[in-house]
């Protein structure tokens, strides 16, 4: 379904982009299909999602630094170190400058995967860290709790839905939503590449690569660690030396990713909110560059507050994915596609409707409601069936958003794991 959403975004982009009126961001799809209100909602949701992703990276790699220090550093200090490094990287204003370092980050992540697989296959799970956010802590905390003799339960696997049923399954699904949440950035990359076909080949190649590598990797980790499987997996390694290797390499790769998300997030905020609503100066001007540079520390400071306040990585992912990423990847693309198709098929060219390139005038007949109904029911049976499917897809995704938020909150509340700082980090 993530691939289908990506296809919808690609098709709409090709339909609305032009030399005179280019589509530059995700919000432009909302504006061209449904108007200003949905554009502001989309831009705000995308900016919030990118900020939360930045906070997620600060949480994850604050834990990296904390683990490397053997928890001698106060946890609140660890995200500060990551944020300070990311602050300087985000001063880069163009995506082109990230090209070669982003490619390097992919190979660094692969190296971490290979190291983790080799070590986990020949060592026990990291029992201590499993209590902070493993699969067992989310599904059944008793499966990772010591007995009266101080021994941890053996590794176990579930062939069907685990105990706890719906809550645990939905929370696991939210991790999958995070893994396939890149559709919100498609338009930004398409706009900068200016080669939609090349982008499509690169995107599907990346999806095949991710599916192959991470599916095998996830099955491998779950086989050896079962309910002790921890996210991020390289922190589930019990040997401190190899923990440090994985943490150090992934930390370098994460700074590249954080710079990318920070760059796009701040540009979404600046171009689509500050300029459109508050008349901020363009980014190419001197005042715009100064204002951009001043926003960067504020942006990263908010990411630090998120990371310091919510150190539960697994729980935070579920809440973030359900509230923002799911909507951006699954809820909005079908409604954009529906609006795009309705507008196309509502035009009656035989009656003189449409855009006149000579005079620059637009001829429309009927009210907005009449045009919506006419566009929805036009185009033949196949097109009407597609319109109905997009409505169902939109409503199902919206329902999943509510269910995901409910499961994320329920998964946290009974265990009492929403501590300001975990005991091991105090």
List the helices and strands and how they pair.
Blueprint: H1 2-16, H2 26-34, H3 36-68, H4 77-89, H5 99-120, H6 127-130, H7 135-139, H8 166-179, H9 186-193, H10 196-225, H11 240-278, H12 286-309, H13 313-346, E1 354-355, E2 362-363, H14 368-377, H15 380-412
Antiparallel strand pairs: 1-2
Helix pairs in contact: 1-13, 2-3, 2-13, 3-4, 3-11, 3-12, 3-13, 4-11, 4-12, 5-11, 8-13, 8-15, 11-12, 13-14, 13-15
Walkthrough of the structure:
With 426 residues, this protein is an all-alpha fold. It has a single domain, classed as Up-down Bundle (Amino acid/polyamine transporter I), CATH 1.20.1740. It is 69% helix and 1% strand. It has 15 helices and 2 strands. The chain has a two-stranded antiparallel ribbon with strand order 1-2. Strand 1 and strand 2 form a beta hairpin. Helix 1 (2-16) crosses helix 13 and helix 5 (99-120) packs antiparallel against helix 11 (240-278). Residues 416-426 have low confidence and may be disordered.
């Amino acid at each position: 379904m993530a691939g289908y959403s990506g296809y919808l975004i690609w098709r709409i982009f090709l339909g609305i982009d032009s030399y005179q009126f280019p589509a530059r961001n995700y919000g432009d799809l909302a504006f061209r299909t449904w108007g200003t209100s949905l554009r502001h909602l989309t831009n705000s949701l995308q900016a919030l999602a990118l900020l939360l992703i930045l906070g997620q990276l600060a949480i994850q790699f604050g834990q990296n630094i904390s683990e490397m220090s053997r928890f001698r550093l106060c946890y609140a200090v660890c995200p500060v170190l990551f944020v300070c490094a990311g602050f300087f990287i985000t001063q880069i204003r163009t995506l082109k400058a990230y090209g070669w370092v982003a490619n390097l980050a992919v190979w660094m992540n692969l190296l971490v995967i290979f190291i983790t697989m080799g070590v986990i296959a020949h060592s026990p799970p990291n029992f201590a860290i499993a209590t902070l956010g493993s699969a067992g802590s989310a599904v059944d905390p008793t499966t990772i709790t010591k007995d009266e003799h101080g021994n941890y339960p053996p590794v176990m696997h579930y062939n069907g839905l685990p105990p706890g049923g719906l809550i645990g399954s939905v929370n696991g699904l939210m991790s999958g939503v995070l893994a396939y949440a890149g559709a919100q950035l498609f338009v930004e990359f398409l706009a900068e590449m200016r080669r939609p076909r090349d982008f499509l080949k690169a995107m599907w190649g990346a999806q095949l690569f991710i599916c192959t590598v991470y599916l095998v990797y996830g099955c491998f980790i779950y086989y050896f660690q079962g309910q002790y499987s921890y996210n991020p997996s390289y922190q589930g390694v019990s040997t401190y030396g190899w923990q440090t290797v994985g943490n150090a390499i992934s930390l370098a790769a994460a700074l590249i990713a954080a710079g990318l998300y920070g760059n796009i997030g701040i540009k979404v905020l600046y171009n689509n909110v500050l300029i459109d609503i508050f008349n901020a100066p363009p980014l190419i001007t001197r005042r715009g560059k100064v204002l951009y540079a001043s926003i960067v520390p504020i942006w990263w400071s908010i990411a630090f507050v998120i990371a310091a306040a919510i150190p539960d990585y697994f729980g935070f992912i579920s809440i973030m994915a359900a509230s923002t990423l799911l909507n951006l990847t699954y809820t909005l693309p079908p409604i954009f596609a529906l609006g795009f198709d309705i507008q196309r098929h509502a035009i009656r060219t035989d009656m003189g409707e449409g855009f006149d390139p000579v005079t620059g005038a637009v001829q429309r007949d009927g009210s907005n409601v009449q045009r919506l109904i006419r566009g929805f029911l036009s185009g033949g049976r196949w097109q009407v069936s597609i319109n109905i499917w997009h409505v169902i897809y939109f409503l199902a995704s919206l329902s999943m958003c509510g269910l995901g938020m409910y499961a994320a909150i329920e998964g946290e509340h009974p265990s009492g794991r929403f501590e300001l700082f975990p005991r091991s980090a105090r």
